[in-house]
Known about the structure:
Number of strands: 0
Structural class: mainly alpha
Radius of gyration: 18 Å
Helix content: 55-70%
Strand content: under 5%
Number of helices: 7
Distance between the termini: 65 Å
Amino acid sequence: MADFAQFQKLYEEHMPKLYRYVYSRSGLDSAVAEDLTSEIFMKALEHFDGYKADFPFGAWLFGIARNHLIDHYKKNAKKKTSSLDEIENILPSKENIPENTESVLWNERLQAALKQLPPEKQELVTLRYVSGYSYAEMAKILGKEENAVKVATFRVTQHLKDQLSFFVTSHDA
């Protein structure tokens, strides 16, 4: 039997990051994200006896999460849920536009640029800027060298900056 106290400590430490990741990948639907996060932690608890302490728990947990999300999307392929496809649901309606319209427009531009990225690049952005993982943690999670993750993240970030800069320059000129 797994050491429940140890698992509980790891749960408390990793739950916020995992939830943010799942939330961003589940159509920005908090109910779905909560259910999926719970299911992922249940799987982790079921397999905790097989966890090797010499491997980072976050990377092990994230592997379970990725596989669980893939299975979830395969089962729900007809719904075709994507966190970036449903961003319109969280943006304010036209009649409730906040005073800071510029930040809303910037968010819309950013979400549009993110939608254009391949899934693996969206994942880099999500891991780094939504879930807050370090490059070392990302490397473990993705099974890649840390330097390769840094370079790929830098490139996708630079690409987004260029896309947004182009949009601002070409539309505001």
